[in-house]
Amino acid sequence: MDNKPFIHTFKTPCGFYFFDVNTNQIVDVDEKTYQYLQNMADVPDLHVEKELTKLKSQGYLSNKRPLRMTPIKDDFLEHCLNEKIAQLTLQVTRNCNFKCSYCLYTAGDSANHRSHSSQKMTLEMAIACVDFFWTRSKSQGKIAIGFYGGEPLLEFDLIKNVVYYAEKMFEGRDLNFVMTTNGSLFNDENIEFLSKHNFNIMVSIDGTPEVHNQSRKFAYNGEGTFHIIEKNLKKIKNVSPEFFKNFSFSVVMDPRNKYDELQKMFSIEDIFEGKNMRSTIMDDYYMTEKVTFSDEYMIERSIHEFKSYLSILGKYTNNKSSGFTKNNIITEYKKNKSTMKKQKTLIDEMSHSGPCVPGQQKLFVTVNGDFIPCEKVNEMSDVMCIGNIYDGFDYEKIRKLLDIVKLTEKNCINCWAIQHCTQCARNCDNNGELSAKLKESYCKDIKYNVEKFFKEYVMFKELGNKIRGNNNGKLQNSGISL
Description:
About 30% of the residues are buried. α4 runs parallel beside α5 and α11 (about 295-310) crosses α12. This protein has an 8-stranded mixed beta sheet with strand order 12-11-9-8-7-5-14-15. Strands 1-2-3 form a 3-stranded antiparallel beta sheet. It has a two-stranded parallel ribbon with strand order 4-13. It is α/β, with parallel strands linked by helices. The protein has helices at about 30-40, 45-55, 75-85, 125-135, 155-170, 190-195, 210-215, 225-240, 240-245, 260-270, 295-310, 325-335, 395-400, 405, 410, 435-440, 445-470; strands at about 5-10, 15-20, 25-30, 70, 85-90, 100, 145-150, 175-180, 200-205, 215-220, 245-255, 275-280, 350, 365, 370, 385-390, 390-395, 430, 435. It contains 17 helices and 19 strands.
């Protein structure tokens, strides 16, 4: 294996390619060269030999692999956590007026996971967190303070006091406020305040009333919640249209439902027009009933993806019919495209992509003052607790989370997706133990998604170039640049 070029081959209906891991570039080749690179079992003929020589002269087909997986150096780690924290997220309450079937707080009966309770953050603790953030973000440009729950608007008075204090502390800095909410508790008072202080709001909504109400119910009576969210969103759009521009939506998709219905609602309803829609497949990790993908769901999703590709390429004019899917494709494409920067070669000691510096991009503080890397991890897991507001960061635990790059070192140094991997410590947490086996269980899906992006990346270039006849510009005002 070590003598073979460090590449990954793939093809599309229009071409043959390999991804060169060392240069982080996708290279197109003719079919004969592609067939040889797939297995390299035979001696190449004269044509292929010439092509290989040319590619090597251009810096491709190196067999270099990293020697070992190494987490970031201590001096850089401490610099990030001493001066460059980008966002503080406060868990202002563990209480919620919803009981959602897939929520970490309510799904299942395991005592190992957090649950809803009356616990809430005190103002004194919140102020201490803001002070801590102020001292640890001095070299960071744009910064943010987020409010999370439970349902954060249950603690609106606390949020107001924190905002007033933070605005004084960070005067002259580029400070933003963000909130993730279920959207049910908006009223005239909090709408006016959140608008005045330029909050960015993420609202959770999962589809049509029937689909949404299956999973997202009121805790006190078990009834569906769609109607109140829709009413509030329409009110905000009417009374405060400028504020409504700051709204985006989080959609948890249940593949047991019809994809067509989901697509239809987000494409037709005016309140979702032009909005950023962050979608994820329902995580059944904490659910007793496991999620399955029906053939009908997969077929319907594929049809809408096809329509979206045609729309992006300017060959399908009914932009609303697959707007939700199109938005997801464009958002994901832009995010992944930023990782395609050309480089000379891999270094000997490196980390696979995926793990962030725990607490740097987002420092999540629980109602009790404990630090965890973000809201996605299990806050009841001891391995995820990386300090607290009283003692500061626990660097030994942080290094342990970064050391996950070593758990599967042998596989990682030979993995073609090493620089596009999305593995993080959350994937390895097995009830407080960091598990190599659990981490490896995600590898197949990660590689599938990386190759899917590669194929989309070259598809837009192939078809876009044929339609436009050149290599520059954007596709039909889609926001996708080639």
